[in-house]
Amino acid sequence: MELRNMTLASLSVDGRGSYGIAASAVDRSDELYTYLRITDIRDDGTLNMADLKSVDDEKASQYLLKPNDIVFARTGASTGRNYFYDGTDGEFVYAGFLIKFSIDPVKVNPQFIKYYCMSDAYKGWVHSYNTGSTRGNINARTLGGMVIPVPPRQQQDGMVSILSVLDAKIKNNIEINENLAA
Q: Is residue 3 packed enough to be buried (19+ CB in 10 Å), middle (13-18) or exposed (0-12)?
């Protein structure tokens, strides 16, 4: 399998990352967009739906996530934590401490990027920016320059297929366990 080293920016639609909206969270309301914050993203890339908030800002619609977007936490102890948006979790406006990259499905299987950003290689790359007692902080340019080893499309699709099945099984097992505990 021959790998091509590509940057995250080169695999995105517009070649760059963008910062989320700088607005305060408000209590959850069906009349407003749901506000995706760093604290809503778990280490495994899933969402904690228990304490979602909304955002009340006239510019909120400009920050709506679209399928194949991936957002990254850019600061603090959760630097590098990420969430891949496929549209199934509802509509979200992403917060200012998140950086969004829109993955181009012509260039790469977007879910391959999702799974790469859960890998030990990715976590090691992030950790290299969190050395010593300094607080983690990664900006859009640094994230965009992250080099990702990209296999041919057929291998990407195969990996994504296998990992997606495993994710579905894990999710199903968690739901079964939660029902048994109830």
A: exposed
* pTM greater than 0.85 (yes/no): yes
What six digits make up the tokens of 75?
């600061």
Q: Above pLDDT 70, what percent of the chain?
A: 96
Q: Give the dihedral of Cα atoms 118, 17, 90, 177; nearest 10 deg.
A: 10
Domain 4-151 class in CATH:
alpha beta
Return the DSSP state at 153. Answer: H
Neighbouring CB atoms inside 10 A of 25's CB total 17
What value, to the nearest 5°, has the Cα angle with vertex 41 and ends 148 and 174?
Answer: 100
Q: What share of the chain is helix, strand, coil (3-state, %, to 5)?
A: 35, 25, 40
Half-sphere exposure of 2 (CA within 13 A, CB side): 0
